[in-house]
Amino acid sequence: MKQKLYVLFTILIVVSACGNRKNETRNPEQKAKYVFYFIGDGMGLAQACMAEAYLAAENGKIGNTPLTFTSFPNVALAHTYSANSYITCSSAAGTALSTGYKTNNGMLGMLPDSTALKSISYKIHEAGFKVGIITNVTINHATPGAFYACAANRKNYYEIALQLPESGFEFFGGGGISEPEGKDGNMKSAYEIATEKGYSLSYGKKGFDSIKNEASKIIMLQEKDIRNNTLPYSIERKENDLRLSQVIESAIEFLDNGKGFFIMAEGGQIDGAGHSNDVKSNILEVLDLDDAVKIALAFYNRHPEETLIVVTADHETGGLALGNGGYELKLNELHKQDGLKNDINGNEVDKITKNARVGWTTDAHTGIAVPVYSIGVGSELFGGRLDNTDIPKRICTAMGVEY
Q1: How many other β-carbons are positioned within 10 Å of the β-carbon of residue 71?
Q2: How many other CB atoms are there within 10 angstroms of residue 209's CB atom?
Q3: Which of the chain's termini has less CB crowding within 10 Å, N or C?
Q4: What is the pTM (predicted TM-score) of this model?
């Protein structure tokens, strides 16, 4: 009898706790006015767990210190395969995450038969919301490009860049434009074309602050005298380097309005660190994405009845394993690395990785499902077993936008 009462009491506590979650007691008719869509390029579950274990190890503990987004109340898994391969590339995955359709590896914003697709960012924009597209790699790279462009080949960077100003989206930020004058450097600058279409270029946080009140559309870049192609890896960041979190902060400031906004933000350097099998850089890039999510969560806390945050990945990179011989993980070994090491055959990175007891199975992508974390209005839509094509459709549902 006592055992039955204990079980009943436990169930009541669990039900009560679940019922107190704001996102689980929302009016189903309520729609998200502000949406943050974070994509960690190459960030599988192992990458998130490793970042948590690293934070715990820094405090001398064995375990996991939760990240901001891993603490969200809703967690799901999404399959990532493309139309022609179980292991996707970033452009096919970006297309799925932006349009709700599968395509072949190497294609961007198009079906396998080259039929152009329409990203949800356009549908959301047409519904009256302002739109921001953000990344810490180049803005015409696969993931950000999938939210405003269509191309038969993801490497047609100039073609993709020319579609940026045609979108009319109010904010682009983070990385610059790859091949802005075409592959041969003999075309009209994509930056010049963007300014002719009404975009103001700003460099660094101070540059943004100086034009934010006059500009109608902005492309926010790294300071000119540093570099304006990609934001640097966290491990090599200098004092004046632009951070992903600063770009998010600026985008919110610029886009916040009575009609609402949609922000897609990519943590693109996680993928690069995965391709390089660079453990410490991988961890720091996940933490950098988490810092950006913290800015969004602070906004959510001010507007909890109107905001949705979704954090996911396009695929996993590297086949990361937390364990590589023996029953131990020694992430404190990573403190010995103080700079970026991109060569996966470099003895130093390999030695540090082995000493930390971290394993990699590949320097490419894998086909494992990726996590989906969410909080806020409509977050109950992002639970259970998902396909990556489900995510953009459900964002539209949460916003009350016709898909």
Answers
A1: 11
A2: 12
A3: N
A4: 0.92
